[in-house]
TrEMBL record:
Region Disordered: start-end pairs: 20-41
Protein known as: PDZ domain-containing protein
Stretches with biased composition (Basic and acidic residues): 28-40
């Protein structure tokens, strides 16, 4: 088991146990967590569905052999989904089609389409296009290299309480600092500011924030864009992080650039 997988397993077990306690059961010394959650549920009708989504997402991360989802054929194309090959795996690099956000995520690995194995990305798109059914069956592994973080802000839009510092203007989703007293570090997911890279031979890289409450974070966001998206997302946050070297490969895929296999770790898909 590699270092990312070990960290993901520890984080999943810790947060799964925490989230399955009764609401308010994971509070520290104060008694207002339960009241805050009740207030959030009454003021924001979608909080319960978000909580259900977090539970489902974590269960899917535990399914090492993957699982099958059905997607409308009309929602699957090169325009609605960008695929990139990483270490002989076909990964989702981007999902411009908002209809897919509840079913699929950046860094999902597509293993099979309609029970057929995939020798190449082109063949995957061909199966999307030529299937006779209205629904396409995708066998996927959920967010193969990422981690889900679940935190609750004490005040709506209090981004500073997360304890995260974000990158420069061209790569604002990169986490350049993680303060030990912030909500993210205290959650244990991620458990540290850096992780081992996926395609760079395992060298340490920063994490990057790629999703907030099922909404993708643009790879070209500025730090201000990222903060604004967090502020608009409410008190309860589901944050998905990926290693930055992998995000850079996904960005190259979006730009249509071909990168040398020996330098990026990309496979032969």
């Amino acid at each position: 088991m590699d270092s990312i997988q070990r960290e993901k397993t520890v984080c999943l077990e810790t947060q799964f146990q925490r989230d399955n306690q009764p609401i308010g059961g994971y509070k520290s010394n104060d008694d207002n967590k339960k009241e805050m959650r009740g207030k959030m549920n009454s003021e924001a009708p979608n909080c319960e569905s978000l909580h259900a989504y977090i539970q489902r997402f974590r269960r899917e991360l535990f399914r090492k052999d993957g699982f099958t989802v059905e997607v409308d054929k009309t929602d699957l194309s090169r325009k609605s989904m960008t695929l990139v090959c990483v270490a002989d795996c076909i990964c989702i690099a981007a999902l411009p089609n908002a209809k897919l956000h509840s079913l699929l995520h950046v860094d999902d690995v597509i293993v099979k389409v309609n029970r057929q194995t995939l020798p190449s990305i082109d063949f995957c798109y061909t199966l999307f296009r030529t299937t006779d059914e209205n629904k396409v069956q995708l066998h996927i592994k959920r967010v193969m290299h990422g981690i889900l973080c679940h935190v609750i802000l004490s005040t709506n839009g209090d981004v500073d309480s997360l304890g995260l510092g974000f990158g420069n203007q061209s790569q604002g989703n990169e986490v350049t600092a993680m303060h030990s007293e912030g909500l993210v570090a205290k959650s244990g997911s991620p458990s540290r500011p850096h992780t081992h890279g996926v395609v760079n031979g395992g060298m340490l890289v920063n994490w990057g924030l790629v999703e907030i409450n099922q909404s993708p974070v643009s790879f070209d966001s500025s730090p201000a864009d990222v903060r604004d998206q967090i502020q608009r997302s409410g008190c309860e946050l589901a944050l998905v992080f990926l290693p930055m070297d992998l995000i850079n490969v996904f960005k190259e895929g979006l730009c249509g650039e071909r990168t040398d296999q020996t330098s990026t770790g990309e496979g032969t898909c």
